[in-house]
Amino acid sequence: MNELPLNELESRVADLEVRLVFQDDTIQALNDVVSAQQMELEKLRRALEVLARRQADLAASMPGEAVDEAPPPHY
Questions:
Q1: What is the DSSP letter of 69?
Q2: Residues 9 and 2 sit within 8 Å (Cβ to Cβ)
């Protein structure tokens, strides 16, 4: 087996440790972004549900408006 000199081995281990630290930082930053996006997505879903209910309530309260009503013949 071809052994590396001690100083070269230490250098390679130090390089790997530095890369690991940067990868850990990147993973944490990505996790923070994904978490923030998930919270924003849930907020938007709730707002959309509220708007859909309001639209349905408004449509139901309109007099003479039928959802499945066919368009007049001149269309």
A1: P
A2: no
DSSP 2: -
Please enumerate in sequence order all residues whose Cβ is within 8 A of that of 12, keeping only pairs 6 or more positions apart, or say none: 4
Show the low-confidence residues of the chain (pLDDT under 50). Answer: none
Q: How far apart are CA 16 and CA 22, in angstroms?
A: 10
The radius of gyration of the chain's CA atoms, rounded to the nearest angstrom, is 30
Q: 57 exposed, middle or buried (CB, 10 Å; 0-12, 13-18, 19+)?
A: exposed
Q: What letter represents residue 8's amino acid?
A: E
Structure tokens at 7: 């100083």
Phi, psi at residue 66, to the nearest 5°?
A: -110, 135
Q: How much is the pLDDT for 12? A: 95
